[in-house]
Amino acid sequence: MHPFPGLVSGRDMREIIRFTVNGDLTETGVPTHYTLLETLRYILGLTGSKQGCDKGDCGACTVLLDGEAVLSCLLPVQEAEGRSVITVEGLAAGPHPSPLQDAFDLTGAAQCGFCTPGILCSASQLLSENQSPNREDIAQALSGNLCRCTGYTKIFEAVEVAAEATRLGLAPADVLTARRSSDTDSSTLAHFQSPQIVTGK
Amino acid sequence: MLRLHPYEYHRPETVDEAIALLVEHSGDVMPIAGGTDLVPNMKHKLFTPGHLVSLRGIAEMQDIAEDDDGFTIGATASLDRVARDARALRALPSLARACSLVSGPQLRRMGTIGGNVCLDTRCTYYNQTLFWRKALGYCLKKDGTACHVVKGGTRCVAAHSADTATALLPLEAELRIVGPDGERTTPITAFFTSDGVWNRRMEPGELLVSIRVPRPASNTRHSFQKLRARDSIDFPMLNLAVRVDFSEDHLVADLQMVASAMGSYPRRLGKMGVVAAGRWLTAELIDQLAQEAFRQCHPLDNMPIDAEWRRAMVPVLVRRALSEITD
Ligand SMILES: Cc1cc2nc3c(=O)[nH]c(=O)nc-3n(C[C@H](O)[C@H](O)[C@H](O)COP(=O)(O)OP(=O)(O)OC[C@H]3O[C@@H](n4cnc5c(N)ncnc54)[C@H](O)[C@@H]3O)c2cc1C
Ligand code: SF4
Ligand code: FES
Ligand code: FES
């Protein structure tokens, strides 16, 4: 059944789009004037990617298109034909959150969570190109993603923790514990939110 | 949520196919490259063509090529690619910088240099939803008869806001345009008009295919400066491109300044070469040029940022540009 029946009109001109979504080959009929974001959310039911401004300002709709972080709210769905799309729901290879998602959860880098799916996609591209990014690299990579809650400090820390964990083959929790014990900050490690907020599921 | 109107989307693979589609659907069609300007504008119902012709699948429009005399940049090369191109960074640093300062990282991966040159002009009273525009009363640029910026004005003065176009003017770039009647080359200095409603000299059915940028002479320096609210994503509140040609004894031989994000086209400021020629580029000359630029620039209330403050920033940008060049 269509996840949001009210949004799709039977009168819309439709087109078949074939593309890979989070590793699965997908073939689906889409109204010709849909963006990739609307297709993901309202045809495929993948509501992790958020519809924020819907006009290119905020980055909440960021997904990976053939590995590059782009704005799905501005992409006519036909441009995804034959290509591979990864959304927040597909960032983890298995059933558990990826190190990046885990680091966001542990540090409190995801508060309301609205910006999180887009930020995770931009950060994933950064980490795939640069395993030891400095703060400036991280700020630059995330400069097209607006977060109104965190003030970015925890986000930067989460990306650093994820990069270090991946480089050293450690769990993000261990990297973070080591960092915390060397500062004056004695706050205990906690998963701040339910994991849904970082996995989009 | 901003919905698009129904349309048919075409994905040609050659320039000829694209032009045939533009001719076939003439009057109800627009080309789309990265879509980062056109899609928001369509969501605001500023354009509602029944057909879109995508330029992204046209291989012959994507290349960046270098030869002895300069560069040929395909119109659909992404801003991100031009900004990072090692050859462009070396030979055309002001252009690479302009590309790197357009919007944010995701938009630069999608947006193209050709789409940037063809960017629609912008205005506080225009880049708004249909609901918003209807509530205020439509304006000259779209469906109305009055201008909200210049009261009683009969011409639209929406701001030319394309960073790369400003940088391309003093580089003496030429635009290769192909249409149903064949091909033409036009200097970018002759491409823009002062009409804010549609400021490009391009006929329906024509496409910008590539941009030719001659290699700057070894005694020439360029600088590009941009003023914006947030350095991460915003459109320009002011743009300034400066070019200085030095003589063999390091005196200024000629000096050009192009300013934009004020009126509807990137404008070459007058007298700069006359004031500077034959002199050393000293702090005193820089001050004099900064004052001259201030006198000639009059930002308008076409964006939600105080016009007087933007004007006061003109000499600041001139000093930044010329200090970069003397460094
Ligand atoms: C949040 C946000 C911030 C932005 N900030 C900036 C900024 O700071 N500076 C800036 O300059 N721009 C900015 N932009 C606008 C835009 O992202 C860029 O100008 C981009 O380069 C446009 O290129 P495009 O390929 O996406 O154009 P499109 O949207 O595809 O096209 C723009 C226009 O040009 C026409 N067109 C495109 N290519 C051709 C061609 N080859 N031949 C003929 N016509 C063509 C289209 O029909 C359309 O009318 C911003 C946009 C957003 C959403
Ligand atoms: S300058 Fe005037 S006519 Fe042009 S878009 Fe703005 S309000 Fe409309
Ligand atoms: S929803 Fe796409 S940028 Fe805001
Ligand atoms: S966590 Fe709320 S906007 Fe970023």
Describe the structure.
The complex is a heterodimer of chains A (201) and B (327). Chain A starts with 13 loop residues before the first strand and ends with a helix. In chain A, β1 and β2 form a beta hairpin. The model of chain A has no long low-confidence stretch (mean pLDDT 91). Chain A has seven helices and five strands. Helices cover 34% and strands 13% of the residues of chain A. Chain A has a five-stranded mixed sheet, sandwiched between helices. Chain A is α+β, with helices and mostly antiparallel strands and 201 residues long. Chain B is of the alpha+beta class. Among the domains of chain B are: 116 residues, Uridine Diphospho-n-acetylenolpyruvylglucosamine Reductase, domain 3, CATH 3.30.465; 107 residues, CO dehydrogenase flavoprotein, C-terminal domain (Enolase-like, domain 1). Chain B has twelve helices and twelve strands. In chain B, strands 4-5-8-6-7 form a five-stranded antiparallel sheet, with no helix packed on it. Chain B has a four-stranded antiparallel sheet with strand order 9-10-11-12. Chain B has a three-stranded parallel sheet with strand order 1-3-2, covered by helices on one side. In chain B, a hairpin with a 6-residue loop joins β11 and β12. At the A-B interface, β4 of A face α2 and α6 of B. Bound molecules: flavin-adenine dinucleotide (FAD), iron/sulfur cluster and FE2/S2 (inorganic) cluster (FES) (2 copies). The site of one FE2/S2 (inorganic) cluster (FES) has 11 residues of chain A, from loops. Iron/sulfur cluster binds next to loops of chain B.
